[in-house]
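Example A, followed by Example B.
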Amino acid sequence: MLSISQELVDAIWAHARADHPDEACGVIAGPVDSDTPTRYIPMRNAAMSPTFYEFDSLELLKLYRDLDDRDEEPVVIYHSHTSTEAHPSRTDIAYASEPGAHYVLVSTREELAGANEFRSFRIVDGIVTEEPVQIR
């Protein structure tokens, strides 16, 4: 189960809405082995696409160095879908490289105006498992 603060959920939503119609993406870091998301890190979608996200490689390198320096790891990796439901696509699954992370997806598609489709998944070796989300 993903346990996450309302403040972090609100930050993800704000980023997703601000970047719409392109997909937004980012990371929420936490202390190593804690499974506790604490530090919100919005990233730039280098693909600048409504159907695909890609972390900028230099920004990602800087992030991992910073995480190492702070004894943190990516607890949540998030992105938005702009015209489909908040469920991992085949591409999302193929690029999921952090087996310990919670993969959070939100949908900003128009028919959801005002709705909150916020979902979390574990993706390990191509297997997707949806998990409950507890907002605290």
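Example B, a separate protein, is given below in the same form.
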Amino acid sequence: MSDIERLLEVAIERKALQFGEFELSSGGTTNYYFDGRLLTLNSEGAYLTAKCFLPIIYQCNAEVLAGPTLGADPIVSAVSTLSYVEGKPVSALIVRKEKKSHGRGRNIEGYFYKGQRVAVVDDTCTTGGSLFHAIESVEDEGCEVVKVLSIMDRMAGGSEELERRGYEFQSLFVANDKGEIYINPTMTH
């Protein structure tokens, strides 16, 4: 069994992926619910998520992985830790919902510098709102976004808008309009 196949199994085992009737934060409803934190805060889930994302991050030559708090926090941490273990470190950045009103007033936590190549990640992509916030924050600091990633693409317009705006987007899993979840075919190459 591949890492991504096992990751999908862990998502179901840990109830990160559930089926039924659920309301989305965007206001719509869906017949499945994906809670990425239940997957990425599990030790095996975090490890497998990092193993699946690292080759993509290495391929696009990203030096840093950034993501919006809270969904991306465990992802960027797991990826950064595994990258160090593998001897090809990729640093982690966490993008706040809004700038701190105290201290240095930062919007992004972690070390970075202008011109750095950054991949942006979140646990899910629905409309892309959290991803766009993180992208804008990273670009406002003078960094280049070279890839946008998510564990789950709900196929609800976010990934299409990312690509329309010129960003390379890739997800590990995809949901179709019937709520069926499958491994993104791009992950098998």
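On Example B: The chain has a mean pLDDT of 93.
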